[in-house]
């Protein structure tokens, strides 16, 4: 108990101390920031009734980071971690990466591996800001937005100009990152072209093995955007993004070495018309298409093709949104259509999802102090059951600098293609994984071929697999005084019908056949704290902290089934319910401290960030299938990132720094933590 | 001869009476010797069914087996074959049955109620198969088969005695961190057991 309170208390004490001081500059700028992701209309951040974070382009530049994954990992309550299968994704409010929608300019990225989107695909070189909405956002965005939404907003030329920047960064592991960004606007025409080249030799903890932790790769992003203003009231945007990556593909199967390539190709295209009818009516017509392709092959020692795999996903989405505004109140409606296809190895055939949806949102200000956001979305889907996702949120301004906000929402995540249609046999181990919708027929085939020793009794596939669904509550406060700014949010998520694998048959080779099922209910709750204090206009310190509890409801309800453990080297003992630690891969405490110090006469910014993650467990080690306090944990750890930027005249910026300054690694337990990476960057602005 | 016979008869009678009275006198405070917990190591389940006898404390090939191992499947010598067409699966010739108890191994001291004992049958094994159902759980990411702690199997042996056992490891030499991908070292059972040779209801 003492441990839980202490860090929190100290943070509050800090805030109380900070509250005494005066004057503020940067804080007000952030408050007036206009955001779009929470409501799909322009809103001032401070009055939004939802928990939301903004990462500005300035913060991105000063951090010296290059990929979206790295930037998100530095935010309070967001942590970039490998899951049990080793895929790296973000965890937000204790929810897995599969439950957060990732968007660029308001449209989602596709191409997930085991539910996880590789966020290192996105370069941050042309980002205006990143908006993060935490909590169920299905009322606007549908499936996948069950845990929240991250929206990357790219730069857009606002006035007549010709400007741009060139930058080059070199870092440890022979990592290169080169950017060219061009912004141009002349009267009705405007354009933004962004090009990024990124490469690395990867890294390796164990030099004695042939495989590396990250193999050598290089990738290119080209992002041309064109704008044409027919008039003040009718504007066209055509935006494209091309991403291409090649990474060495290696495998060792039964001591034999196999080598090849894996390529990823992604294309996003968005055509949008912004139409202001009059002072009341505003519409956006949007057509979005995206394609994500992944091809990989392995050759054996004699360069003979051994294995090939492919993955080809399409999403086509027309959407129309209309906002009707009277005074400060806005009624927003949207209607759209999703056409999604996936063709991949381990699928019997090309599979198609179609869905139609409509959403309505009312942004209502009954008094000057009160803002209410109410809405719902209805999704009608060709494969799984239709979903109605309501949401209600309110913000009450007690004073201009002190407000309370609360929200409740429903979120869902539909079963994905893999959970429904997978048909995979692991060549080295020999187990089989079958998607829910193909499991029955494939099991019959395998039985006829004599490959099944026994089907698990009591399992059938007659009822369709249900969507995972969540109820999410947030209750927060926002407070500002002089140089001090504070944001606190308590959250609770209850997730039902969680989809997990279960054994459905035993094969004659002794291995299992797995399929998916709605297996359990989990809940997460906690508290997120963010504060910023400007000691002077040149020195800012911010603190972030998240307390998190994440547990499986069935374990809490029936702990007797999990109470026996067998610690290594001893007999079986019974433990008590309070020893249950919670879900795998969740830390109770995550925290960060960020120092931003400017030396004006040297035009130098020093940006130091320290991150902490408390202990967590990756798997059960004492035979009760869940994480308890007698299990082996991954120890808590600190990471420190430093960057120093210096302006030379107005045109040049030199930057140097290091990520993971103190070279913390834990190769046995944490495979995504490379050691210290020193970098240097030069940027030329024109 | 006659006297000898008489003497012998008397002697036998005395001995019998003495032993009887001895029994009667000590019935309340007699302690059946505590059962010994034995560790069986590296019982291979790699080739067909390996039959084990608790009373003989070893792997046997006769019909006087109590439990048998094949991969992750454990069978008991009582009831019927699960798969009658499987020639490898031994016929059940004994009166064996199994009751599954959730407790620490040493804390299981009394026999469970007779109604909780199950025999193998064509519909299900006495110890259910599959991850999380019987004695083990399987981690799909690490491919590790881990015995579930606190699963104690009380066995009625082929000849109606009782034994209890718990699985400790499925890997050769029961290492602390087994390598599930080393197929040479899997399907080796290590288990603790205690055999009650006496006619009683406790271990």
Automatic annotation (TrEMBL), chain A:
Residues 169-661 form the TonB-dependent receptor-like beta-barrel domain. GO terms for molecular function: siderophore uptake transmembrane transporter activity. Its main location: membrane. InterPro entries: Beta-barrel_TonB, Beta-barrel_TonB_sf, Plug_dom, Plug_dom_sf, TonB-dep_rcpt-like. Pfam families: Plug, TonB_dep_Rec_b-barrel. It is found in: Cell outer membrane. The keyword Transmembrane applies. GO terms for cellular component: cell outer membrane. Residues 46-149 form the TonB-dependent receptor plug domain. Belongs to the TonB-dependent receptor family. This is TonB-dependent receptor. It comes from Flavobacterium flevense.
Automatic annotation (TrEMBL), chain B:
Residues 1-23 form the signal peptide. CDD domains: HmuY. The keyword Signal applies. Keywords: Signal. Transmembrane segments: none annotated. PROSITE patterns: PROKAR_LIPOPROTEIN. It holds the Pfam family HmuY. It comes from the Bacteria. This is HmuY protein.
